[in-house]
Amino acid sequence: MSGKLCDKLKNLSLYPMHMPGHKRNTDICGDFLPYDIDITEITGFDDLHRASGVIDDIQRRLAAFYGAKKSFLLVNGSTCGIMAAVVALCSFGDKIIAARNCHRSVYKAIELYNLSPTWVTPPLDTQTGIFTSVTAECIEKAIEHAPDAKAVIITTPTYEGAVSDTEKIAKVCEKHNIPLICDEAHGAHFPLFYGASAVGDISVTSLHKTLPCLTQVACLNIFSDKVNTERIAETLQMFETSSPSYVLMASADSCMTLLENSGKELAQRHTQRLEHFYKAAESLKHLHIKNSENCDKSRIVICCENTDISGRDLFECLRERHGIECEMASMRYAVALTSICDSDEGLLRLENALAAIDKDLHKVQCTPLSEICAPNVCKTAYQAQKCEKMLVPLNESIGKACGEYVWAYPPGVPVVAPGEVITAGAVQSILEMRRAKLNVISHAEEKILILK
Q1: Where do the structural domains in the chain lie, given as residue ranges?
Q2: Per CATH, is 268-359 categorized as 3.90.1150.10?
Q3: Residue 191's Cα: distance from chain center in Å?
Q4: d(Cα 178, Cα 59) in Å, to the nearest integer?
Q5: For 146-245, where are the alpha helices, taking DSSP H only?
Q6: Which residues pair with 162 in a beta bridge?
Q7: CATH number of 4-259
Q8: Whole-structure pTM over 0.85, yes or no?
Q9: What is the torsion angle, in degrees rounded to the nearest 10, for the CA atoms of residue 96, residue 99, residue 105 and residue 108?
Q10: Mean pLDDT by 10-residue block, N- to C-terminus, for the chain (452 residues)?
């Protein structure tokens, strides 16, 4: 399947006296990588930052797919879109309301513009460690606390597939005239499966995460006249490369053509695969698959609390013994990400692997995980990053102001951020993640940076 940009790239014939330096010479460079279609903004191929031709055609098709007033194609992932959206709506030093389980790109945007966040912490399932949905009531309370906030930002769906009621949340934000940003990075496929994407003023979604697109391809969708599209275009130029990859943009073109021609049929087939999988998974005795009403069924969350296997061990067992590489592992669950490009055989392999693993497990009683509390902020992240810092042992850091972000990646949600007071619960969470062999990102293994 191909679109207009793909067709133009196939028909390239002019000799390239321009960037990039490989000059599309596959005799020298080989043909493993797509050198033959990797170009710069040459005549007739449009410009991502001033799109009016073949790239604008992709953006118009994205807008039609997502039901948006305007869509911006992104080649630096959802990260650049999220940061551009926050900066477009907020001025230096403003207030913002944000879900505590937001991606680190939100935290970085907050730091960059010295924003003062009011955090909204979704309920945590302390048995599995999974955040549930943000509610409209929680957003209402946050707005009462910070009525002059310039934006609200939430993540829906989350890394674990929890979906918030964005329609209700959007109504609350509309009532208070505060724009809503939805980090919908993991929901690119929602129009195919659920009829619509998140309802808000702006949503940012990663095409590459759940649709047939190359890594880094995403889009920013504007749904409201309250958003200044020119300002969004300006801030995107702050965070996105001025030399966008035509290979990446061509994959968006190809993806849209596939969805326009076969998307509904592919989604229907995959829905049937998932229904079969979830039905078969009901026979598991120890493991169980998260399957609530407000969750994305294409994201298979395999829970292993109250068993003698950790999420990390489950992840490694699927990989080493059954040849299945999952998306991520946490302390008490693993995530298997599926899409319309999966096969019947692939879902059956996962079904059989889980059945085999389940037979060897035993029931144990797990202790509840640490609750996540709203942080006590003594400095903004911007202020904290300018302070002198020192490393101290984790157990000596309680009550001190943190000097770094500490998170497990994936999903990239900080446990503690610069300028926040380190609590016993935060230290406990970090220790729990390390014991579970998660990829904890911090400056030192057993220490943490604090402000002097």
Answers
A1: 4-259, 268-359, 381-451
A2: yes
A3: 17
A4: 26
A5: 166-175, 190-194, 207-210, 229-239
A6: 295
A7: 3.40.640.10
A8: yes
A9: 40
A10: 85 91 93 95 95 97 97 98 98 97 95 97 92 96 98 97 96 97 96 86 97 97 96 98 97 96 96 97 97 92 96 96 96 96 96 98 91 87 97 96 92 92 92 89 92 96
